[in-house]
């Protein structure tokens, strides 16, 4: 369930906690994708701080997953996936939209979690300015909108999600417990029936239900 409207307007400060560390990301990608739901993604940018509660993710499992970028081998574009867990992997799709992923699993398994949607909780005015809309539900619903609202560009590719400008923080005390739906991934051509998309049931910020 989503946070209450007054909580969103006040703006939470999840970054006052310790961020999620290497051990969180260096696990089975499906588990990381599932447990990222309800955590907070924060971008400390020169323009200001923006933050959102993660409400939708997708797992990409490495070379065994035909929909995963690393299944085609290492390239300049996907090189970050072949390093350690806990790093930001940003790529451009359709020549227009950026997508943000976090590397996961063991170093020898080039896997990642795609962050598909956030519930905005802090830096709303900055998000609205970047997106050109005041509609809260349209700020971070889908990976392209999310990246635009959060100020994600290719410059962040390869940065640490533990010590860099993009970090993830655990749920805050009192946050509602997420009721999670598991579904097929979307926007891909291979392995379309694999149940590797995870989202918070009832959240109006999810990109597709």
UniProtKB/TrEMBL annotation:
GO terms of biological process kind: base-excision repair
Family: Belongs to the DNA glycosylase MPG family.
Organism expressing this protein natively: Thermanaeromonas toyohensis ToBE
DNA damage listed as a keyword: yes
Pfam families registered for this protein in UniProt: Pur_DNA_glyco
NCBIfam families: 3mg, PRK00802.1-3
The enzyme's E.C. designation: 3.2.2.-
GO molecular function: alkylbase DNA N-glycosylase activity; DNA binding
Stored PANTHER family: DNA-3-METHYLADENINE GLYCOSYLASE
Keywords attached to this entry: DNA damage, DNA repair, Hydrolase
Name of the protein: Putative 3-methyladenine DNA glycosylase
InterPro entries: Formyl_transferase-like_C_sf, MPG, MPG_sf
